[in-house]
């Protein structure tokens, strides 16, 4: 009887050791690995003063469009850098808008479109670095006709 108990104990130890080896070394890892999420930095918004863009058709100013640009960046250092570069960003935005906003382009795609927004984000990426600017929003405040048209 002693021999049978010793034999069962040895088999249990060998079986337990084999199972533990399989569990720790050969078993595929579970797909539910715990991954800590990096906390998302809240957004901050930098608002540029309203600017007038003149629409010209055949050498004559046909409309004055007042636009406001709001740029979204992460709070903290990105916002501080955006405030430092605000004048250059505004100048580059206005240059891009003047190049995009000729009369035919406005009448075909409207005053705000996804193309224009993407171009403004591209301008901001050149100044601030790729991925710093989260979004750029273009708002049209008013559209007026000059008195000479």
A few lines on this structure:
With 149 residues, the chain is α+β, with helices and mostly antiparallel strands. It contains 5 helices and 4 strands.
Helix/strand order, N-terminal first: HEEEHHHHE
How many β-strands, per DSSP?
4
- Architecture per CATH nomenclature, i.e. the level-2 architecture of one domain: 2-Layer Sandwich
Could you say which overall geometry the principal axes of the C-alpha atoms support? Answer: rod-shaped
Give the C-level CATH assignment of one domain. Answer: Alpha Beta
Q: pLDDT below 50 for ≥5 consecutive residues: which ranges?
A: none
Class per helix and strand makeup:
alpha+beta
Helix content: 40-55%
Number of helices: 5
How would you describe the overall organization of this protein?
This protein is of the alpha+beta class and 149 residues long. The chain has a domain of 102 residues: Band 7 domain (Tetrahydropterin Synthase, Chain A, 2-Layer Sandwich). Helix content is 47%, strand content 26%. It has five helices and four strands, in the order H-E-E-E-H-H-H-H-E. Strands 1, 2, 3 and 4 form a four-stranded antiparallel sheet that branches. Helix 3 packs antiparallel against helix 5. The radius of gyration is 32 Å and the shape is rod-shaped. The termini are far apart. The model has no long low-confidence stretch (mean pLDDT 82).
């Amino acid at each position: 009887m002693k021999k049978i108990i010793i034999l069962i104990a040895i088999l249990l130890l060998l079986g337990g050791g084999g199972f533990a080896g399989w569990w720790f070394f050969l078993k595929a890892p579970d797909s539910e690995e715990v991954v800590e999420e990096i906390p998302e930095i809240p957004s901050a918004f930098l608002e540029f003063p309203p600017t007038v863009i003149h629409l010209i058709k055949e050498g004559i100013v046909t409309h004055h469009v007042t636009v406001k640009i709001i740029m979204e960046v992460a709070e903290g250092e990105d916002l501080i850098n955006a405030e430092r570069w605000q004048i250059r960003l505004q100048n580059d935005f206005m240059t891009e808008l003047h190049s995009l906003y000729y009369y035919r382009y406005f009448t075909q795609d409207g005053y705000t479109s996804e193309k224009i927004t993407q171009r403004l984000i591209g301008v901001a990426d050149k100044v601030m670095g790729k991925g710093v600017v989260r979004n750029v929003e273009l708002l049209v405040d008013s559209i007026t006709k000059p008195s000479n048209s």
